[in-house]
Amino acid sequence: MYLAMTSDAETLEQKRTEQDKKQEDLLGQYGLVKPDNGQLQEPEEIDETPANPSVESSQPEQSVPTDGDFGNTQVSDQPPTQTPDQGADQLQEELQGYINQLYQVEARYQQFLDEMVESTKKEFWSLPKDQQVKEKKMEIVKSKMNDLIAQENACDAEVETILANMEDVLKRQGKSNDLVNSIRSYYEESKASWKAAKMTELYS
């Protein structure tokens, strides 16, 4: 099963803290941040409307120009020109949105693990006193493994989709995939630590 069963809980917690710190430092190098707990939400859709839409509506309706008016006529149906800085800010916003999504997946997976541990404990302690032995606890844990694997696979698929989107943004920014590769490694290492911590909790 998981190597976590023989791992020390305090060592695992320290490892997770180090992994999180390393990840936050990495994000900082790209001008990105970890979203605050309790504030994880789907990234807002990019608003493509002009910054001040009321300006156009407040102007008086122009009459059909005469021959002498063409020099003063403004084309009103052209979209506002986007400066390079605005384009860069929009890509950065997009990238941060994907980071927020990754932390959402992480939070859901951790919640699933917590709930699995709690339901296992509850099921174990509801057994008759003479059946509350380690073998029975292991049986309960094994019975939940299929659900755990299915949840893990679903999270893995979500993460890969988000990382693919991030690769596209980085490409448009003219940057390498180092950030995506580092996040993928962090996710795999952290996932192993999460499982290890929970298995240690169950078998202690």
End-to-end gap = 15 Å
Poorly predicted residue ranges: 1-7, 41-60, 62-73
Report the principal-axis shape: elongated
Query: How much helical structure, as a percent, in the residues?
Result: 55-70%
The topology string of helices and strands comes to HHHHHH
Total beta strands:
0
Strand content is under 5%
Whole-number mean pLDDT:
79
Biggest sheet character: none
Number of helical elements = 6
**Radius of gyration using CA atoms only:** 26 Å
**Structural class by SSE content:** mainly alpha
The gist of it:
Helices cover 65% and strands 0% of the residues. With 204 residues, the protein is an all-alpha fold.
Mind explaining what this structure looks like?
- The chain is an all-alpha fold.
- The protein has a domain at 20-30 and 83-204.
- Helices cover 65% and strands 0% of the residues.
- It contains six helices and no strands.
- The protein has helices at 9-29, 54-58, 84-125, 134-143, 145-173, 178-203.
- The longest helix has 42 residues, at 84-125.
- The two termini are 15 Å apart.
- Mean pLDDT is 79; it is low at 1-7, 41-60 and 62-73.
Q: Key features?
A:
204 residues; mainly alpha; 6 helices; disordered N terminus
